Amino acid sequence: MDIAAALKGYSQATRQIQLDTAMPGAFAVERFHGREAMDESFRFEIDVLSSTPFLDLNPLLGTAIRLRLATGAGERCWNGYVVRAAYSDTDGEITRYRLTIASWLELLRLRRNCLYFVGLDTEGICERVFGDYPEARWRCELKEPLRTFDLRGQYRETDFDFVMRQLSEAGLSFRIEHAQDAGEKPSGNHTVVVFDRRAEQPEGSTVAYHRQDVGDPDGVMTYFTTRHQLVPDRVTATSWKAGNLVALAGHAQGEADRDAPAMPAREVLDAQRAGRFETSDQAQRYASQRLDALRLSKRIHYGAGSSRTLEIGKVHTLTGYPDGAVSFVPLTLEHEAVNNLGADIAQLLEHGELEQGRYRNRFAAVPPGVPIVPPYRDRPVVHGVQTATVVGEPSSRVSSTRDHQVRVQFPWMRGTAPLPGGLTDTASRSNPQGHAPGDHRSGVLARIAEQAAGPNFGHSFTPRVGAEVVIGFDSGNIDMPVVLGQLYGGRVQPPFAAGEGSSANHAGVLTGMQTQALDGTAGSRWVMDDSSGQLRHELSNSVANSRLAQGYLIDQQGAVRGAYRGEGFDLATEGWGIVRAGEGVLVSGTARTGAASTQMDVGESVAQLKQAVKTAQSLDESAARATAGRLTANAAQADFLKTIDPAQDGKYAGAVNGQSATKPAAGGAGGSGDPVERFAVPAVVLESPQNVVMSTGNSAVSYAEKHVHLTAQDDAHLAAGATVAGASGEAASLYAAAGGIKAVAGHGPVSVEAHASSMQILADQSVRITSSDDRIDVLAKDAIVLQQGPSRITLKGADILVETPGSFAVKAGAHPFMGPGAQSPVLPALPIPVPLALYDEQLRFVNADGVPLSKVAYQLKLADGTTAAGVTDDAGKTERVASASPLGILSALLTPTQMVDCCGRTSGTPPTPVEVKIKGVQTNQFQLGESEKTVEVDAHERVLTAGEVEMARTVFKDGIDYDKVRVHKGSYFWFNLQNKNTAVTPNGKMYFLDDLYVDDFSAMNGPDIWKRSLFMHEMTHVWQYQLGYAVRWHALTVTIRGQSAYEYTVAPGAVFHDYNMEQQGNLVADYYAVQVLKAPFAVFHRGYVGTPFELDHVLAPLLEDPKNADNLPK
After folding, report:
1. Minimal CA–CA distance to 519: which of 395, 390, 400?
2. Which of 922, 828, 857 is nearest to 883 (CA)?
């Protein structure tokens, strides 16, 4: 019998090893060798025989396969997938092939990926990876909580290596359970069971310990032994957490074995990288898991035999062992089996064992209850650096965290919004959107490395969204990216680009930093210019073009060095500038050779001030001798000199912050003993060896709360193109020590007045009063006395008295004596200055709403019969009324100074002044110069009548809150615009002057029926105001056009909101007259009046929805 014929009659039904494939009946199993292990994918190598040579094995790859082994209770199945099929050999009649089967986990070795997982724990990561494999069946049996990771990266790893690493780091193991199905077609049904060290260990079979010749169909165990070995007894795990600036550590200590000799500690220190733990509990759990993994090999059982029911990860019991029953959990299990193909095939193939068949295995196991933890797997190291792009909120320029981190996206990241040229196809059905969102949803958060970083000090650089950055990885860990810097390239050019290919006019001498505002405009700039002989340092900001430049000053535009502007320093801004120093400011134009001396050395100013003090004291003594006013501020000047003079108070009294406050000796580093200068008070000193100029094209203001001291060694000049005015609250003295004093008015009078006392004109020699062109008048209220020596002439009342002890001679060409005559002198009144007044008061006029009546002409009637007139200011205030004694203010006549007609018949007549009675107001001595009384200009006010409300509802329905409407009899006085024959409604209240006001507009009939239409015009403004329209402001721009502002025409398609506020008022008034009253003669104006059809069409939107603000004027 030949082999081919034997195989053709072959049947698997009576064989101990059977194989189900996608090619039924094509093969007979000759033998197999397989390995199963904890945390491994099983793998079986199966030698099969076939009578068909050169079979096409390609259809088998990736298909399900089932290997069956006969047992006492039936059979045991291993389900898997064909991962390799190969031709082995042939003798011409029969061909031997080798099939390799493995778990679906083996498929994970075939895909290598670069991917980030965000916000997932280990189970979630496995679910995401396994989701791309339809063959995957798995479940978890977990007792300990899993850590959720912000970021986990798979970089150039196979899916298998990545998943194994994640399980290892989480302390999770897995075993593979096979479905014991017996269907006709293989399903490949096996389940990966992921469990932790606290999970329950399932029960397995019982195995007898015996010789191999015992006929147990499930087999026996012929060899069993135990190995003991030393292992580490302590693990310490530590890692630096940068976010909290703390090292997190965990410690795990194993229990010492009983009766074991004392040995030194065998510690494993795991401190390989930062950022591994978020909490101390995580560090502790990690240390404990690592210790369990190391102690797993402390006690290992090894066994061998023919037991066909052993399974990985289950608790089996060995009976018949000399030491008693032993339980064990297999960690690895290797199978070797030969099929029972019968005597014919065994003889033909010359393999006697093929007649009866054979099965053997060997295993390694641990005692039950021992925590099973996989060994730690090293993560792959990312070598070198990579580039990435900063991403963030859409339309934002900056997107960072409080901890100085930015979100980045790498070029290799695939997803919905990859970088330009990137891939959108993620080749994943579990995560089709990928991990490249292109915005703030990117989970890759990278810390930014700085040259200096510490608690509230260091550099701060935040890459903008869209910037290309250089990424390094802490400890080569893909999960810990760090921004090392930013790159120029492509469209991103350096701010000071120079050299080949640039438009700059230099070879690259500019160094510095340029920022950009978030809206893309220019920001701040720091430039160092290293041009030979033209060194420059500049800080600038685009806001108000502010800059500080030092050295060789030029005009720099972009990267181009511009025109020369000078040397030194330039501090300039188009905005506000301020120099503020809490202890004083020194501005000096005196050069210090070699930058000698100290910061606040004011030696020149001290010397000049000493001369000023000496000059002022000399002039003060001279004035005192002449009984002129004294220079009483001299003492303050001398006191100030002490505060800046280092010989007095202008110096440091002792050491400063532990350092001696003495000036260095010339040419040496030691102190000279001279104190370092400082201001004793926060003074501002301005000093120059030449000239100091203050100049402005407008006004200059100088104020001193105490003294102003001006001293000149030579001349002091004060010149004004218009008026020089000086005022003193007390006395004024003008003294010339050596020369004279002149008061000359070139084109006007010279007036010297003494308001409250006498005036004296004294001279040691003669006094000359000359009138070159007119006369000299000497006037007095009581008497005039001319006296020389013992003689005098007295003019008093109607008498002239001449007294002299000598002769009295009158010489003239004639001596006519006319009759009596008299003429009273007109004496100018001397005012009472407000600062010197004993009583004063100021009025402020407002209307009923508290609005100031500004720019109103007033005439105040005073109790003494006099009046005070003027125009109120913007706050409605009058000038102050001053008196020497209490003086009552009785009334005021108010007259608008500006006229604009509004809402009524225009009139060219001037306005009638309004008289306002004032009660209980008089000048007083309390709060002199500050007292103020408010006078309210009242007007008659009433609510709407029932008839008026009914009128308004015909158009506005519920579009107006009628309870808020008021009708006034009198002027509004808003900007004083209300003229005669007008009505205004600026604030939701209607103001009618006396000639238009009535107590009930709904009662108007006959010749006055037009007032109903006028009322409806004003109610239109009430409706506009209550819907939020700025009536009072728009009135100024509309009514300034005069009568044309009120006139309207009805254009085709025009609706209510196409008309201005006054035209809308007329349209409503006309509609009411024409359509409601059916009385066209009730129209109150003389302009065009629309037809009933036109009025209905234009007002249709308003009549339909009066509450809709879209009906307001556009």
Report:
1. 395
2. 922
Pairing of strands 662-664, 585-588: unpaired
Q: How far apart are CA 1022 and CA 1032, in angstroms?
A: 11
Same domain, 399 and 483: yes
How far is 238 from 836, CA to CA, in rounded Å?
A: 85
Residue 632 lies in a domain: no
Say if 579 falls within a structural domain: no
Q: How many other C-beta atoms lie within 10 A of the C-beta of residue 936?
A: 14
Q: Which tens digits make up the pLDDT trace of 248-271? A: 888 888 887 766 677 788 888 888
Q: Pick the closest to residue 974 from 1025, 909, 1044, 920 (CA basis).
A: 1025
- Structural domain count of the chain: 4
The pLDDT of residue 951 is above 80? yes
Whether 944 and 1040 share a structural domain: yes
Closest-CA residue to 312 (of 33, 32, 31, 41): 41
CATH value at residue 56: 3.55.50.10
For residue 200, how many other CB atoms are within 10 A of its CB? 9
Same domain, 470 and 395: yes
User: 79 and 156 share a domain?
Assistant: yes
Angle, helices 1031-1039 vs 1010-1026, to 10°: value is 120
Q: Residue 471 corresponds to which tokens in the numbers above?
A: 């990424």
What range defines the domain where residue 856 resides?
A: 834-897+909-933
Please choose, from the candidates 1044, 990, 1054, 978, the residue with its C-alpha nearest in 3D space to the C-alpha of residue 1021.
990
Distance of CA 504 to the CA centre of its chain: 36
**Which single residue is written with the structure tokens 């009078």?**
749
982 domain-assigned: yes
Cβ–Cβ under 8 Å, residues 469 and 390:
yes
Rounded to 5°, angle at Cα 531 from 527 and 532: 145
Question: What pTM was computed for the model?
Answer: 0.62
CATH number of the structural domain spanning residue 885: 2.60.40
Angle at the Cα of 66 (from 63 to 71), degrees rounded to 5? 175
Beta bridge partners of 550: 537, 569
Establish if 1052 belongs to a structural domain: yes
Residues 978 and 917 in one domain: no
Mind listing the pLDDT tens digit for each residue in 20-74? 999 988 898 999 999 999 999 999 999 999 888 889 999 999 999 999 999 988 8
The residue behind tokens 């040229």 is: 421
Q: Which residues contact 244 (CB under 8 A, 6 or more apart)?
A: none
**pLDDT score recorded for residue 819:** 58
What is the model's pLDDT at position 52?
87
Tokens coding 1107: 């509450």
Among residues 86, 168, 176, 77, the alpha carbon closest in space to that of 136 is found at 176
